Amino acid sequence: KVITMYDDDVREVGNCMKLHYAQPHLSMRESVSFSKKRLCTMINSNKSSNYKNSLYGERQNAVKELSKHPQDFTFYGQGWNVKRWKCYGGGVKRKSDTLVNFKFCICYDNTNDANGYITEKIFDSMQAGCVPVYLGAPNITDYVPAECLIDKRDFSSYEDLYNFMKNMTQEEYQKYIDNIQAFYASEMAERFSGAHFAKTVCEALAVE
Description:
By secondary structure, this protein is of the alpha/beta class. The protein contains 6 helices and 7 strands. The strands form 2 sheets. It has a 5-stranded parallel beta sheet with strand order 4-3-5-6-7. Strands 1-2 form a two-stranded parallel sheet. β3, α1 and β4 form a beta-alpha-beta unit. The radius of gyration is 18 Å and the shape is globular. The mean pLDDT is 94.
């Protein structure tokens, strides 16, 4: 049998099973108050790929565009040119300790063409009480409610996205946080638990 996290469509193949990316924490840590949070961040290594639907280049584009607002954007990760990117904050030891200090995080998965391929990035953000700006799996809202995230596809430019984040009120922001907490408390989140991961593997290995 084949078990894979990559694409929902594998379930249509007789010997394949879908495996969800297990998350170590399906709850939100204590967060920083709205007034003390900085606006936006991103935590990603600077990578490249020739795959046509890779989002590595779009992460670089996000850095380029959001760096036009240096007072509101700081990003982190390995492999970035320190001299070129003035908003670069270096590496981080623990993502949540950084994310907790920001209202929003650019969370782009590795590709944008695989249904159900959802990695740790959006969960890292939500666990830290930081609202994710997501781009990746086309059917993300089948797994994480739309009310928990900002869908980058809804914005025609990064300037529109920036203005949306910048002008969000505390009351509007709190609704996202409340929705994330409700998601974590629901059965919908359980498919990303370690227990569900183990159950899937054990079912795949079961001898008939």
